[in-house]
Structures are given as structure tokens and as C-alpha cells.
Amino acid sequence: MSRSCTVFVVQPEPPAVLRIGELSRRLGISDHVLRAWERRYGLLRPVRSTGGFRLYSEADEARVRRMQAYIAQGLSPAEAARAALDEGPLAVDGPAVAPGDGPGNRIDGRGGLADAAAALDRALTEFDEPTAQAVLDRLFNLYTVETVLREVILPYLHDLGERWQTGTASVVQEHFASNVLRGRLAALARGWGHGQGPLAILACPPGELHDLPMLAFGIALNRNGWRIRYLGADTPIDDLIRTATTTRPDLVVLAATTSERFDEMARPVSQLARRIRLAIGGRGATPAWARRVGAILLDADPVTAAERLAEQISVGERRHG
User: Fold this and answer.
1) Last residue of a domain, one of 135, 170, 187
2) What is the pLDDT along the chain (321 residues), one digit of tens a residue?
3) Could you tell me if 313 and 306 are in contact, meaning their C-beta atoms sit under 8 angstroms apart?
4) How many CB atoms lie within 10 A of CB 17?
5) What 3-state class would DSSP assign to 49?
């Protein structure tokens, strides 16, 4: 007489191979927040490497994505953490799905950001500042400043500019949205002139009024250890040179949306670049113009450009130190 039995195979969790920096990058959440969630809620279950480093698994990543999805639905962080831990075994070979929702609400590293970006767009289009501020609050609670700037605010500003140029966004819509976002960026920039780090002067040349991307650049550069002196939009070139000569910054950054803005001040800027390190950015900055005046070309989005520039200058100074 034969016996039949049912065998249950328990799949082990994938090995823990992620350092906290990589986990932070994947999720767009600062390592400080991840450590706080680990300490307060037991959401993460790291192991120690032979060298003593804390390593995290893809299951840890999936639990954090579950928690983000619950927070996005309005739960408090503590409630969201409990709900994420109560979900049981988590699939780690595909994107996490927001609890209680179907495939249309997947959180796959960008889905949550995309949904929030759409909500922000709707609120600003409808002149609904309270909702726009609430969306921004939630974004900055869930993600790093750099992620929110790079993935939500800067793309929105670019799209808004395109719509304004084609006439699908009115002047009042552009002004309203810009003022709301300027207020948030100004709050993030508060105190960025303090500290002991290298000093950067940021300005837009005469006639250039679109300075919000420059604000974002300054915030990102400050978060990489730099002090910022912000001169803003439509800065007279003589005043810029006078300020740079007096304060002797480590870097001067100019940004413009058209090359004509740069062309109008080529000679004084070339003279400035001979004495102080100069970088140029914005859609008006070209490789040819950078070579012409001897400037560093910032050819990425403002946040990435700030990160690369800070690393580039840091590496160069270490080599020559």
C-alpha cells in the first residue's frame, strides 16, 4: 500500500547583498529615513557581512515599497509599516503592487512618483494650492530631495514651459505654478549660505527670468557640501563680476534658456573665467560656447549636474592637493 504526501517547499529569501546606499538609490529614500524605519518598525532585516557592513535583500526593498504604497493611500508611517509587515511573503521578482489595488497602481520605483507628479499637475492646473502643497509634503516625506527635484519638479517645469510656449497653458497658470514651487524651493534653500564648504555664486544673465532650475541646482549643490550665494534672475553682468571679484568664490555658475543670453556678455564672461572657475548651464549653454569662454559645461539636468560638478571638483582638488 503506497502512501501519498504533500510536500511544501519554502522558498528562501534572496541573499542580502545591498548596501544601504544602493537601497536608498533604488527607492529614492534617504538612508536616514531607512534606518529610522528599521529601528522604529522593524521593517528592514539586514544581515552583517564578513566585513561588518549591514546588507539588505530585495525582500527588504519590497517591504519598503509596500510601506510607501500604504502611505500614499493616507496611512500614517506606523500604520503603513504594520500593514506592510502583515502582508506575509513578498514577491521580489517583479514590481510591488499597492495594497488593495490592481495593476494600474503599481509601484515599480517610478510609478509612485508618476502618480504624484500627475496629482501635482492637476492641482496646479486647477489653482488648488492646498492640494499641491499636500502632494509636495507627501513626496518630500517619502523620497529624497534630489529624487523629488529630478523626477517630479524639474520635469513639471519643463513641461509647463513647453505648454506656455504653445499656448496650452496661460500666463496666469504659469505664474501661479511657478510661485507655488518657488516657495517650496526657497524653503529648501534656507540657510544654504552657512557652513565651511566651498562657495558658489549662482546667477542668470541679463534678460533671463527663468531661474527655478538654477534654484534646484543650488539646492543640490548645497546638499553636496557647498555654500551658495544666489543672485537670481536677470543679474547685471557688471554686478556679477564685482561680486565675484570681492568675494572670490570657488565657482561661478551662469544659466540661460537661450544662447543669445550668453552671446550678449561673451567678453566680460571670458575675462571672468580667466580668474575664477566658471560653469554654464541651461538650454542656452552649448559645448562651443563653453570652449569659447573657457567654462565647464553643465549638460545634465540641474540636480545631476550639481552632483557631477561637486564630484568633479572634489576629485580634481584631491589630485592636486
Assistant:
1) 187
2) 444 444 434 444 556 678 888 888 788 777 778 888 888 888 888 888 777 778 888 888 888 888 888 877 777 778 888 888 887 543 333 333 333 333 333 333 445 788 889 999 999 999 999 999 999 988 888 888 888 999 899 999 999 988 887 888 889 999 999 999 999 999 999 999 988 889 999 999 998 988 999 999 999 999 889 999 999 999 999 999 999 999 999 999 999 988 888 888 888 888 899 999 999 998 888 998 899 889 999 988 999 999 889 888 874 554 444
3) no
4) 12
5) coil
Question: Is residue 281 helix, strand or coil?
Answer: strand
Q: Residue 301 domain-assigned?
A: yes
Q: Do 283 and 231 share a domain, yes or no?
A: yes
Q: What is the DSSP letter of 93?
A: S
Determine the Cα–Cα distance for residues 135 and 118; give it in Å rounded to an integer.
Answer: 10
Question: In angstroms, rounded to a whole number, what is the distance separating the alpha carbons of residues 20 and 61?
Answer: 10
Residue linked to cell 543650488: 218
Assigned C-alpha cell, 58: 530585495
> For the residues of 292-307, what is the DSSP string, one character each?
HHT-EE--S-HHHHHH
For residues 300 and 214, state if they share a domain.
Answer: yes
Residue 54 resides in a domain: yes
Q: Are residues 162 and 127 located together in one domain of the fold? A: yes
Answer whether residue 8 is part of any domain: no
Contact 71, 77 (CB under 8 A): yes
Q: Structural domain tally of the chain?
A: 3
Does 105 fall in a domain?
A: no
